[in-house]
Amino acid sequence: MIYLDYSATTPVGFEVLDTYNKTSKDFFGNPNSLHSLGVKTKNLMNSATKQIAEIFNIMESEIIYTCGATEANNIALIGAALFYHNKGKHIITSKLEHPSVYAICDYLESLGFEISYVNNDKEGLVDFEDLKNLIRPDTILVSICAVNSEVGIRQPLKMIRQIIKKENNDTILHSDMTQAVGKVSVNFHDVDMATFTGHKIYGPKGIGVLYKSNSVNLKPILYGSGKTNMLNPGTPAVPLIVALSKAVRLSTTDIEKRERFIERLNNRLVDALSKYEGVLINKTKYSIPHILNISLRNIKSETFLHALEEYEVYVSSNTACSSGNLSLSVLAIYDDRVRASSTIRISLSHLTTTDEVNKFIEYFDIIYKKLSGLHR
Ligand code: PLP
């Protein structure tokens, strides 16, 4: 098997799984219980939270566990909109967000909020001038992803923050950092809220994080019991939390060395794939090397994906992460509907080997020749 879909999800790390199993077995008490079994579990959970907080240089009280990035985005964006609605009803987001952010914005629009979509330039970066002009006294929230999930564009969040705060110091900046954490270095202090998920960083599925600066207030969207997490009540998933802390530590260690290695694999792929007349490389100088997006002329991406599957090669097509048949991110950058209609995302990891990349190139060639021949 050649797995090249690490941006969709990652296999859980062996050590991470081991931590999950041991915690499930030895710390099964409910951390909300007052007896010693509960206290023992709560202490372990707190030390996992402390570790995550130290890695990201934030406070433990600023970490809210969720079941993934989608839930974290919901709690963050809906919670902020509902808490600050008296200050204004204007929200800004980009044209390069994950569908979960768009779905939440659509919902907020149905509640009477006004959503603006900031333009981006040809390299995929948020257009600073447009952003500046969009900020108004009633702009309560801006949501810009740190790394786009389809083309891998990395946004300069520090700069974006400066622009926003200069125009309106009260506007909250949220960033979906799901495709950034564990791949490139991130600074949570560039934003007021950030979200990420365990299953993209070799952690278990079913656990995510919302970082919320203590200066931000949210109206809860979930209600229940349990004092440990007021924004996401109920019994905390301690084995998932402890396993997540391990995944965070492992994935943020050696991050630059891994990035350089992945960059070499990415360059090798670009060299090989750009030779085909019917292949367009959707990559700008701000794309992180972990994601390589291509467009196929005259071949449906889904057909290509399934042909690769015959060789046990796994990648994503635009249907997995976009609306309808169009890749919204490719459309936002290249303004070309044909180019956006048949895209493939190849996503790499430090676990990817040169041999796998070479084999992928070999299979790609066979399939490409076969499928493009059909259209002659
Ligand atoms: N945000 C981004 C940028 C993503 O890439 C994804 C997953 O593809 C999500 C959010 C959703 O994450 P989850 O599956 O944990 O809800």
Can you give a write-up of this model?
By secondary structure, this protein is an alpha/beta fold. The protein has 2 domains: 2-9 and 254-373, Aspartate Aminotransferase, domain 1; 14-251, Aspartate Aminotransferase, domain 2. 41% of the residues lie in helices and 15% in strands. The chain has 12 helices and 13 strands. The protein has helices at 14-26, 36-56, 69-84, 99-110, 128-134, 157-167, 238-252, 255-273, 301-310, 328-334, 337-340, 354-373, and strands at residues 2-3, 63-66, 90-94, 114-118, 139-143, 172-176, 193-197, 208-212, 279-282, 291-296, 313-314, 316-317, 343-347. The strands form 3 sheets. The protein has a 7-stranded mixed β-sheet, with helices on both faces. A 4-stranded antiparallel β-sheet has the order 9-10-13-12, with helices on one face. β3 (90-94), α4 and β4 form a beta-alpha-beta unit. It starts with a strand and ends with a helix. The structure holds pyridoxal-5'-phosphate (PLP). Residues 68-70, 98, 100, 145, 149, 176, 178-179, 197, 208 line the site of pyridoxal-5'-phosphate. Pyridoxal-5'-phosphate binds at residues 68-70, 98, 100, 145, 149, 176, 178-179, 197, 208.
